[in-house]
């Protein structure tokens, strides 16, 4: 009967306290051994004292275990939140959703740990709870370590991004530093030249490269004026071949179109006439150089070159009609374009006869001629700033071609002449652009070769 009752209430322990009577113990022992002596269910057993204990309440979670689990869940939530922030910059939708789910999961776990912790207070538990399994703590620790590892990976990625950005900034700063170093070197050279004495400063500026550069600009604007003049001659019905034959009657041109080089030569040699005179006078009435001190001549010439380079020649001719440059322009224009030529060029124009032969703004040659004259004027002033003075030379027609002092103005023709089997050197037909001696350096004269002995 007691055994059935104990099974019904699921008792944990049953204690029997019997009287210490040997005879009763022997009878109880015999009764147990004899199956026929089993008491009937209605039999009341006397002399026994039975104590029934209720089941013990379920063991409550250890506070230390709960604390460790709470810390692990909090650390995991912190790592998940960091991943959530990282996924926003740049924005990655999949990473944001994954980090959000992980953060919510850790918050739920933290809430469960809180509920378990509150259930460990004094008195009976308000909510029936079960013992916190050991796997819960181990799982929390594993999850915590994984989240820490992912946190470190995110931090490493962020640090690597910062390193790349710093490297790019460092490269940009290095380039800026190199540019500043180059600027510093140039400024140092300028300061060094500025601190030089006047004589040394002039010497540092006056190089062969400077003169050659100004000469090239002069040739460019001279070609431009020649094209304008040739276009006017064509419009006026001029025969360029006849005009070229009048300038150089005994020259055989390789091609009919090469007769324009004769007109270009006429312009260049006319404009450069008197270049070896200090005041650019080609009539023999120039200033005597023995009366001019070298340093004064060089300083004055360089100053005029610098000042003139900053001026507009058209404004100079309009505002200062009595200046030396304007006088130079009028004299050269009158020599190149005399009244007969201009009258022929402008026969269909409404310009009055009184304006022919004079340099006026109404002339179609006015602007291009002013630019050409200004460039040649600057080249002359620069030449007289050198010591010794730059010397000009030209090659006489019929002279044998020399590669030291000459270059042909038509390179392909030059190559044909050089490759031909003729034993004699080609002859110069005429000089197009004069050459110059800058100290011991020769700037070659540009010539046109006579084609009298060549057939193409």
From TrEMBL:
Task: List every stretch annotated Disordered.
Answer: 19-40
Which Pfam families does the entry link to?
Answer: DUF641, GIL1_IRKI_C
Q: Does the keyword S-adenosyl-L-methionine belong to this entry? A: no
Where in the numbering of this chain does the DUF641 domain appear?
Answer: 64-182
For this UniProt record, give its keywords in alphabetical order, as a comma-separated list: Coiled coil
For this protein, the record's InterPro entries field holds:
DUF641_pln, GIL1-like, GIL1_IRKI_C
Q: Which BP terms from GO are recorded?
A: negative gravitropism; response to red or far red light
Coiled coil spans: 149-183
Recorded source organism is: Musa acuminata subsp. malaccensis
Domain GIL1/IRKI C-terminal positions: 392-448
**Official protein name in the record:** (wild Malaysian banana) hypothetical protein
């Amino acid at each position: 009967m007691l055994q059935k009752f104990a099974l019904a209430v699921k008792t944990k322990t049953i204690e029997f306290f019997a009287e210490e009577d040997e005879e009763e113990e022997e009878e109880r022992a015999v009764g147990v051994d004899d199956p026929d002596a089993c008491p009937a269910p209605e039999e009341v057993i006397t002399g026994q004292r039975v104590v029934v204990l209720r089941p013990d309440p379920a063991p409550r979670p250890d506070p230390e275990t709960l604390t460790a689990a709470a810390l692990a869940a909090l650390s995991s939530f912190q790592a998940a939140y960091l991943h959530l922030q990282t996924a926003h910059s740049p924005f990655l939708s999949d990473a944001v959703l994954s980090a959000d789910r992980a953060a919510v999961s850790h918050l739920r776990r933290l809430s469960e740990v809180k509920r378990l912790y509150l259930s460990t207070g004094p008195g009976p538990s308000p909510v029936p709870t079960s013992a916190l399994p050991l796997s819960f703590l181990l799982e929390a620790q594993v999850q915590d370590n994984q989240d820490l590892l992912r946190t470190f990976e995110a931090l490493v990625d962020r640090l690597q991004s910062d390193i790349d950005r710093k490297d790019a900034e460092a490269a940009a700063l290095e380039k800026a530093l190199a540019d500043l170093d180059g600027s510093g070197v140039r400024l140092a050279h300028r300061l060094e030249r500025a601190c030089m004495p006047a004589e040394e400063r002039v010497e540092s500026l006056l190089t062969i490269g400077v003169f050659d550069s100004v000469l090239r600009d002069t040739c460019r604007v001279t070609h431009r004026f020649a094209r304008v003049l040739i276009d006017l001659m064509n419009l006026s019905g001029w025969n360029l071949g006849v005009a070229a034959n009048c300038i150089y009657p005994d020259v055989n041109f390789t091609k009919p179109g090469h007769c324009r080089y004769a007109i270009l030569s006429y312009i260049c040699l006319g404009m450069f006439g008197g270049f070896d005179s200090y005041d650019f006078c080609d009539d023999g009435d120039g200033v005597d150089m023995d009366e001019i001190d070298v340093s004064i001549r060089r300083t004055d010439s360089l100053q005029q070159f610098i000042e003139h380079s900053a001026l507009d020649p058209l404004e100079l001719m309009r505002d200062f009609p009595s200046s030396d440059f304007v006088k130079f322009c009028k004299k050269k224009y009158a020599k190149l374009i005399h009244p007969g030529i201009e009258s022929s060029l402008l026969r269909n124009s409404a310009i009055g006869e009184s304006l022919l032969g004079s340099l006026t703004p109404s002339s179609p040659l006015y602007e291009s001629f002013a630019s050409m004259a200004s460039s040649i004027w600057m080249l002359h002033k620069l030449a007289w700033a050198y010591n010794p003075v730059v010397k000009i030379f030209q090659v006489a027609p019929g002279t044998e071609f020399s590669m030291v002092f000459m270059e042909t103005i038509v390179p392909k023709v030059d190559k044909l002449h050089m490759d031909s089997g003729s034993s004699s050197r080609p002859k110069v037909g005429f000089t197009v652009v004069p050459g110059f001696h800058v100290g011991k350096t020769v700037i070659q004269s540009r010539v046109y070769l006579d084609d009298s002995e060549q057939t193409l």
